[in-house]
Amino acid sequence: MQFSDVEGDLSEVLLTQEEIHEKIAVMARQIEIDYAGEKVLLVGVLRGAVMVMADLARELALPIEMDWMAVSSYGAGTQSSGVVRILKDLDSDLEGRKVLIVEDIIDSGLTLSWLLGNLRSRGAASVEICTLLRKPDAAKVEVDVKYVGFDIPNAFVVGYGLDFAEKYRNLRGIAVLAPHVYA
Ligand code: 5GP
Known about the structure:
Blueprint: E1 10-15, H1 17-34, E2 40-46, H2 50-59, E3 64-73, E4 84-88, E5 98-106, H3 110-120, E6 126-134, E7 147-151, E8 157-158, E9 174-177, H4 179-182
Parallel strand pairs: 2-3, 2-5, 5-6, 6-7
Antiparallel strand pairs: 1-9, 3-4, 8-9
Helix pairs in contact: 1-2
The structure holds guanosine-5'-monophosphate (5GP).
Residues 48, 73, 80, 104-112, 156-158, 162-164 line the site of guanosine-5'-monophosphate.
């Protein structure tokens, strides 16, 4: 889906498909250097990270495995609460593995800091984070994020896996959702 297909719902285009793909390639080159000779386990957080995972995994010139987790951050509307519940756990054993969490966005950082602690407690050799987007709020919680694509303004964004009420995930780029849509 293109921006023009939902134009009235968007207030500003933030990132085009091309800009996203260029950035993912840059992140992949760094990951290839940092994990040279290793088999990385990419852990995607459902459902938002599906697109990032699909593009990053194909871009990486490294042997990888993929696994998925689904978590829910309790909270009303467009705010995360930090209370996290596992809806679907990993299928893989993390003992001794080099794990790279692949995320779409870090907002408050509450979900990820919880996830980081949870995965680190399972005996992984290392657990790092790669996120396409990060909002300024993330700086308020201590989350050590190794790879960040873009720092974006504090607005609610959709597209490229990110939804509002399950809509807009298939938008090719990323845009700010117009307030009238969620008001
Ligand atoms: P955090 O715990 O970092 O505040 O929130 C993380 C989760 O909230 C993300 O994985 C994502 O699902 C959701 N989220 C945070 N900001 C946005 C946003 O701007 N747009 C969308 N669609 N989801 C967001």
